[in-house]
Amino acid sequence: MSANTKYENFVGQELANYADGEGDMAHDVLARIQERWLRMFGELPESEW
């Protein structure tokens, strides 16, 4: 699995947690998700765009 796919899956699951009411509905949800990813994996994958 590529780093980008792994990141996309991670973000999707995190967003699903927010939709289920398990997360903080802060304005900067994506920033919080990225912070968690960085703590777990050290760097964001490079964009393929």
Write up this protein.
The protein is mostly helical. It has one domain. The chain has two helices and no strands. Helix 1 packs across helix 2. The longest helix is centred in the first third of the chain and has 17 residues. It is globular. The model has no long low-confidence stretch (mean pLDDT 79).
Number of domains: 1
Q: Estimate the helix proportion, in percent.
A: 55-70%
Q: pLDDT below 50 for ≥5 consecutive residues: which ranges?
A: none
Give the N-to-C terminal Cα separation.
Answer: 18 Å
**String of helices and strands:** HH
Tally of DSSP helical segments: 2
Query: What's the number of extended β-strand segments?
Result: 0
Gross morphology is: globular
The major sheet is characterized as: none
Strand portion:
under 5%
What average pLDDT do the residues reach?
79
Précis, in short:
The protein has 49 residues and is an all-alpha fold. The chain has helices at residues 3-19, 29-41. The protein has one domain (3-41).
Layout of secondary structure:
Layout: H1 3-19, H2 29-41
What are the defining features of this structure?
single chain, 49 residues, mainly alpha, 2 helices, 61% helix, globular
